[in-house]
Amino acid sequence: MSKYDYYTIQNKGNAEYPDWVAYGWGTYPSHSVLAGQPMKCYLKSFDSLTEARDAYPDAELSNEYLEPQVCLNHLSDEGDY
User: Fold this and answer.
1) What domain range is 50 assigned to?
2) Reading across the β-sheet that carries 20-27, which strands appear in turn?
3) Tens of pLDDT, residue by residue, the chain (81 residues)
4) Total domains present in the chain
5) pTM score, two decimals?
């Protein structure tokens, strides 16, 4: 059984210095403040997409616009004083 539900690879660099990053995705556990929401975990960086694909062949290409977002609406607007 895998620790993550699925994997993504993103290009976090630029044309001159590419930086391909693999992430594992799951759900925050019930004891977390973010319980039930998407959890994104950094796994490893690579110099090329080929290296990243070799290490995580089932990963999908992604970017921050395609990712699920964490919702903080359940938190109070009042401070912790």
Assistant:
1) 1-81
2) 38-46, 20-27, 6-11, 60-61
3) 468 999 999 998 887 787 999 999 999 899 988 888 889 999 999 999 999 999 999 999 998 777 777 666 666 677 666
4) 1
5) 0.77
